[in-house]
Structure prediction request, 1459 residues.
Amino acid sequence: GCSGSGETGGSSSGDSNGGGGESVSVVLKTLSSPYWKYVEAGAKAAGEEFGVDVTVVGPAAESEVIQQVNMLEDQVSQSPGAILVAPSQPETVVPVLENASSSGLPVLLIDTDVEFEGKTTFIGTENFTAGQEGGKLLASMLEKGDKVVLISGALGNPATDERIKGAKEALEAAGMEVVAEQPADSDKAKAMSVMENILQNDKDIKGVFAANDDMAIGVLRAVQAENLDVKVIGTDGTEEAVQSILDGKLAGTIAQSPYNMGYQGVENALKVMKGESIDERIDAGIDIITKENAQEQLDFLKSISE
Amino acid sequence: MKGIKKSFGSNHVLKGIDLDVKAAEVHVLLGENGAGKSTFIKILTGAYEKDAGEIYWEGEKVQLNNPIDAMNLGIATIYQELNVIPELKVYENIFLGRELKQGGKFSMLDRKAMITEAKRCLSLLGQKTELAEMELGELGIGQQQLVEIAKALALDAKLIIMDEPTSSLSAQEVEQLYSCVEGLVEKGIAIVFISHRLEEIKRMGNRITILRDGYKIDTLPVKDTDPDYWIELMVGRSLDEKFPKQSFTLGEEGFRIENMLVEGTEQPVNFSVNYGEIVGFSGLVGAGRTELARAIFGADPRNKDAKILIDGQEVQIKNPRDAIDAGIAFITEDRKSEGLLLDQAADINIALANMKGFQNKAKLINLKDIRAKAEEYIKELQIRPNNIELHARNFSGGNQQKVVIAKWLCTQAKVFIFDEPTRGIDVGAKVEVYRLMNQLVENGSIVMMISSDLPEILGMCDRVYVMSEGKITANLPIHEASQERIMKAATGG
Amino acid sequence: MSQIIVDKKQENITEKKTIKTYLAKLAPLLALILLSGILTFLSDKFLTVNNLMNIARQSSINALLAIGMLLPILTAGIDLSVGSILAVSIMIMGIVSVSMSLNPVLGIIVCLAVGAGFGLLNGVLLTKLRLPHPFISTLGTQFIGRGIALLVTAAAPIAGFPYIIQFVGREFVGPIPVSFILVIFVYVVMHIFLTRTQTGRYIYAIGGNPEAARLSGIKVDRVLIIVYTISGFMAGLAGLVMVGRVNSAFPLAGVTYELDAIAAVIIGGASFLGGVGTVAGTLIGAMIIAVLRNGLNLLNVSADSQMALIGVVIIAAVYVDVLRQRKKRK
Amino acid sequence: MSQIIVDKKQENITEKKTIKTYLAKLAPLLALILLSGILTFLSDKFLTVNNLMNIARQSSINALLAIGMLLPILTAGIDLSVGSILAVSIMIMGIVSVSMSLNPVLGIIVCLAVGAGFGLLNGVLLTKLRLPHPFISTLGTQFIGRGIALLVTAAAPIAGFPYIIQFVGREFVGPIPVSFILVIFVYVVMHIFLTRTQTGRYIYAIGGNPEAARLSGIKVDRVLIIVYTISGFMAGLAGLVMVGRVNSAFPLAGVTYELDAIAAVIIGGASFLGGVGTVAGTLIGAMIIAVLRNGLNLLNVSADSQMALIGVVIIAAVYVDVLRQRKKRK
Ligand SMILES: Nc1ncnc2c1ncn2[C@@H]1O[C@H](COP(=O)(O)OP(=O)(O)OP(=O)(O)O)[C@@H](O)[C@H]1O
Ligand SMILES: Nc1ncnc2c1ncn2[C@@H]1O[C@H](COP(=O)(O)OP(=O)(O)OP(=O)(O)O)[C@@H](O)[C@H]1O
Ligand SMILES: [Mg+2]
Ligand SMILES: [Mg+2]
Prediction:
């Protein structure tokens, strides 16, 4: 289920009506992962529905933090009607956003929040909360005292770090024993290797929480190879993960409704541009996806990626 | 210097050498390739650490740990291998390591002063002063050598060491160097001079020290002794003749070049070589002999209408591979940059141009054959040490040259183009190379020799082409050739 | 008399040489043994058949990339694009064999061909455009490859590969992973290629002295193109193993893998200046890295100290080699 | 008579030389002008004071890293650790001036000192341990630096720096960003350093022929240590600018920045083989990269196509230089 990447670039601004007013600029952490593609899809859908130019940009990788700030500056200097931002390193965008909002540009944050003067709203769910939910979900499948493992992303990535923190708190609160916490750089193959190694130490592991779905799937491969019954929970709710849940492999994933974030972001930006007032905090909601609701989610994902 | 010893691993190169140099003398070091001359002077300049021995300077014992110590004492050195920085200007090369500054230690460089001084040194060597501000890499190898000499002159040293400074110079520049050295000696400066050219030793040297296998054999006054005696001391036996010229009956024409344009000239070059003769190419540095050879060999681009004929058949040569396949061997003049894989074993170096010849049916290379072949050449050319696994870098200059020659012998070529084949090799080895040329001619090969060493041209060739500015200005049978006639043609007249 | 002296000297050198040769082959192995010793001491799980097979399997992707990387490094070059090439290869294989459901064998061929094709591009850019250093051409294709990998499916991963494609990365023969058998096979072939074929020797020659190589009749450009093509091919092959391991292709696969591959080659005793390096050394280099990462996981070393430790081990492993060489020279 | 012939030839060469020199300086500039022309044509936003100042500001971090990187490259080396050094420097500055609330000026000094200190470490590892190539020592410190940056605050970012620290990266003099003024100042100083001081010339000499440099009495090790220390110092300075721009320090700052810095230096006409490269060229190289990224953003080119395009432009920019050099040689 993949199409329509080419038009990402050409969608706006080329036809020189980027004169402001009627356009919304969206700056994401990256556009190189399915999760952010869903956000993009949501934003574009809203743009089409409300008849407004939506420009979605993002660096090639989440680690390109300053590149994101540059993109933000470049977008701001094109004076759009409103700007939506999902900051990779929250604090880094503050100076630019303060400048932008002080010159009257509405600034909406999505996915990841940060405090600054003149913020319009935040739409999303805290990563910490998502991690907590994941931890709770995992704990609910296990028994007190069971051994669990945490697989983090590249250390220093605030999104995955926060998820791990949340999950750890929830798991420990539920009386689970965290026997290992290792990074796998959000890389499927690395996650698999890391899990294989952890299993060398201890075959008695009952559950794993991974800070994103790619790593969860890598972990799952390692577990399956050993024919162990380990519950693996991921985060993000990608199509691949949902499919795996449906197949009875992955135990669950925490989806942060990326599509909704994009959609609601543009929707609310337009409201602000029209002078309507909106809430300072809009919860995009979390979907806890398990075997029960996986089919539904899969259908939804397929519908939006077409 | 007293009792200097040095070994590389278990290779004992210097086994206790004493040497004293007086002010205002030219002290010559003579020895076979690999005798340890360069190693010895590198210890003297602090470039190598010595294993044992003492060094005295003006009566006092000194410790030389690095080249700076030696420079501070007033020892300037021209190493055997060119030690210049191609990316820097000529004047910067001349002052490298002891730049002139406008003020104190951390002040800016005084470029003007350096350029002025550099020009003075260059003109001492009879060179155009404009050279000073050119990038060194744009000069030919001979001119680069002259810059090295200028560098030593600029140091105002009390002792100047010259390790084969003349090996890449032609007669004219060598003359300049002689008069320059004479001037230095008059000023009371001591010179240590290493050369394999006996006639220049005779002409310039005051005393001569002969080394053999890491031992000092003797120190003699130059005036009262005979070069043949030096050779005897040096190689341990007497050498019958320096140029073992053999004459063969002149055969048919085997190699012919038509309409070859050397870059930068309009007049095409035509020449031919017959079986049974050795044909020399003489000329000044930069006359275009190397360029001509490279163009023939397909190493440089050349004009389209040039023709190369072997045995009357035209051969198409677009690159060195074609040339080798057509049976041409080109023994390049700069063994380090164009000839050797310095960090690979001698046997691989020898086999390199003829890997195909060592393939078995499965297209795999037979390493044993390579080793056997290499052993054969090492014996035949008396390469020392006779270790085929030694990396090319660790052979002395002359033995490196022999490895390069072995490489080309290995291709079983028909046409041999030697470019300065005896550059930097000792008298004994030279004779071996000459014998080898004789043998090649005898066995039906075509032999051409580019050389800046006039005695060698006169002594070994049957015919000589003289080049000037990319053109052939004379074609002389050897009985008509003389130093004067060749020089006249070489300078364009 | 002098003749006798000379002979003795030479005998001596030859003798020394054989010991040297053994030592030289032992060098990176020393670092590996040292590291393994430490880990055996620290974790009783380390020296088990199971774990060793684990390491064998985990090292295979990097081992394949590293043996490809050895070639450019032998020619005094580098290939920064292997990670990206891996990604494009598997994404296109995914499109062919999953999205388009074509024959899986065709998929494998496409994967290897795309890898080799990108490598060929690297070689052609370097030699035909006469770019000054492969750092530039391969940095360029690193970006281009990654861009294409992202473009072809709009950044979506592809899962559900047929068994035949997964076979190499997934299956075992007895306790031994097929991927490791593949690695050994590839290494043996490459060893023969580099030491016993004309092109192989030419690769060393070009690294040692490109001008001398050219004047010895070696078609330098042709050999360089072969070198980068093989490197790209190995990236495709590593991709095949990766897909087998994780049963999916994703466009960010292989990010920064070039660094691990380069580290393996250099730890294995090769030189950036070209002409020096062996196949066996490279294998040991790849094993050192795999053992290190395995050990860090076994010991549950905290994530933040892992980075620093890897850095220290890279330097230490190369330093062991430096020390040995220095001793040899004494 | 022969004297005259020689004279003529040399005059010719000298004359050719001056034209060459001008051409050489024009080369990367040509690529920059070409690129800017295309962008002006494609986007009316490009050639505005506002946007140009944007570019000036955005280029400054990479420009500082690149001028530091120029020095190792001039010596035929490389510094892969600059991104990590940047990260450690700013994290420790954060701890000093935010967490511990010490004097902000002290914070700045610490930031630069940490940068220079890590550079010094690179130099010492390279020269004293005699590691075979700076690729290894700086790859090692890349990991070590990143590890330490992650360790010091357990991977947490630090925000809320005092104004004095933010000043350079944030403020303007008229429309001109202070960071760009700093860049110009640093470049002028480095130009003088490299062309007019002894150490500066030694850097070129070592790159050209290290053995000759040593035999000419240059203390090669000392110069190399200076080179890597300056490179580290520049990373610290770039960190200071970054903190000013984003008012925060985070441990993953500067990941892969070394590639942009290297690209800038090479696009600017320097050679990996050492001895060749200029300060002006490096500035132009850094500007080309900044203009390119800015242009792609202005044109809303998608991230994946951006990647591919950047790859193409890197190759093209260097190729322009190659073409020019080829013409020069004719
Ligand atoms: N770095 C080294 N490592 C090992 N052996 C070396 C090294 N340098 C020189 N040698 C050996 O030392 C011996 C003496 O070499 P040296 O260069 O001093 O000879 P030379 O008398 O200058 O000869 P030539 O006339 O050919 O220049 C040779 O056998 C050479 O192989
Ligand atoms: N690398 C170089 N760069 C620029 N000019 C060069 C270079 N090498 C040689 N030249 C010039 O090319 C011309 C021809 O040189 P060539 O080497 O062919 O002369 P030659 O007759 O072989 O002299 P030699 O006695 O030095 O071998 C000379 O003017 C020389 O200065
Ligand atoms: Mg010598
Ligand atoms: Mg010549």
